[in-house]
Design goal:
Glucose Permease (Domain IIA), eight-stranded antiparallel sheet, three-stranded antiparallel sheet, 3 helices
Length: about 220
């Protein structure tokens, strides 16, 4: 996988070019309202596709958030890869959050599982079962297995993956994004405790979601 640079996601370039080009054309034609709307859409898209630098926390046996947003669920559910009941933390991203997704832990990408589905509101729990989604399976060096699920939402219609099977990535590395509002579910292995609760705001690659219990 080619490492992603900070600033603006390349996927946003076509949208930004169209917005600013349309704005300039409307301005030259002296169409004030369309020009203003084009400018507003440009700045909205610029905000959406931003990719800021993050301070990745040091320390062993911790997992960071794979997404910016609000924690909407902390509980137990069936891991889509292993079929086991595991602890899960779900993060909802609204259209104003950064949508770049990051690795929760350092490890090797074992594979992906894509499931087509609906596009209901991603803040609802049924989105984890019904919506279009893509699960990524990660193996740490110590053998622990993690699953991160990108879930498309009511507005989001495209899941983007930069990582590939076999990639060895560090904690906090960028691995994908979802366009325009979505959800990330993180399933963690036995022995980890969640450190967040419903309603908490988290930052991808920076906020610690879970920590391994000390023996």
């Amino acid at each position: 996988m080619r490492k992603r640079k900070t600033g603006i996601c390349p996927e946003g370039a076509p949208v930004l070019i169209v917005c600013i080009s349309a704005t300039l054309v409307f301005a030259l034609l002296e169409w004030a309202i369309p020009a203003l709307l084009g400018l507003i859409l440009f700045f909205f898209s610029l905000n959406f596709f931003r990719d800021p630098q993050r301070v990745i926390p040091d320390g062993e046996n911790i997992a960071v958030s794979p997404a910016d947003g609000k924690v909407v669920r902390v509980g137990k559910d069936t891991d889509p890869f292993t079929g086991e009941e595991r602890s899960v933390v779900c993060v909802f991203m609204n259209v104003f959050d950064v949508h770049v997704n990051r690795m929760p832990v350092a490890g090797t990408v074992q594979g992906f599982k894509y499931v087509p589905g609906k596009f209901v509101n991603a803040s609802l729990d049924k989105a984890s079962r019904d919506n279009e989604r893509c699960a990524m399976h990660i193996r740490e060096e110590n053998g622990d297995l993690w699953t991160v699920v990108q879930i498309a939402g009511l507005v989001a219609r495209r899941i983007v993956l930069w990582a590939e099977t076999g990639d060895q990535l560090a904690r906090g590395d960028r691995y994908g994004m979802i366009k325009f509002g979505s959800r990330l579910d993180l399933y963690f292995p036995c022995g980890y405790d969640p450190l967040v609760q419903v309603g908490d705001k988290v930052l991808a690659g920076q906020s610690v979601l879970a920590k391994k219990q000390e023996n």
